[in-house]
Amino acid sequence: MTSAEKLVLSTTVSESEQDSNSFISPGIRIDLDELPRYSIWPARLLSDTGSVYEKTKAEILREFDQEKWNELLIRLRSSPVRTLEQLEALMFFASSQMAYSIAGEYYRSTPFAVNHIYKRFLEHELRRADDVTCIAELGAGAGNLIMHLAKNTQLAKTWIAYELTESGRALTRMVATTEDLPVVAEFLDFDDPKTLVPSMPERTIYYSSFALAYCKDPEGFLESLIGAKAKEIVLFEPIYQFFDETTLSGLLAKSYFEKNDYSKALFPAIQKLAAQGILEWDAVKKNGFAHNPLCPISIIRLWPK
To answer: How many domains does the chain have?
Structure first.
């Protein structure tokens, strides 16, 4: 483990750090020319054949429910230890270096260290909210992020992991039971907002982490969240309109976004609902963090009016 990784893995978010980025300790700095050493995507984009990885419901279920999360579920079930630590060890086991970015600067580190940095990035932003009863993640995947928050913070009393895939919900239930965490896994289909739990607790904050990029009708879904009496909605999502096409990194990000068929409709939906007086919004950070440096996420906070 490098000295930079040791620094990353030893960091915690204290009260004094809540209004700074000092807790984010990056790995080893790299430049744009070095990205192909640590990511397959620059080469793929430059040898583009015009194909698009369509995000149909069937394709999403194949990739995540049948393959990614199901394979992880099988491995965790066969493990004598079914803790959150073990889940993340299985998710981020690779020892090879990967590229990522913070605020447009490129770095490399191990997947485990990058995940640690991202959890702190997420936690730092969610700590800005106060007087919260419930925190719900939209599209929780294997549930590792929301279970980290439930285990390591006192931000809420109730935690809900909304997820489309059965294998993802099963992973969350298994680990939450082992860890005795107050996290409940619920089914949610972005295409059917009626699947939201109708009687959510008062003062609920919803957040998403690279999940609404898969939502084809974000306007309708956001209206449903507001109808569910959300106190606040915090989006950690890639925003197509924030990628600067006057830069090489921005052009690569747009190309990656298009090739992977992510939804471009999220930000226009936010603008439309704001113009209608339904919500207020603030872009806290544009392109602030990226597990994949070709698709950085931004942080947008929404408040019902």
So the answer is: 1
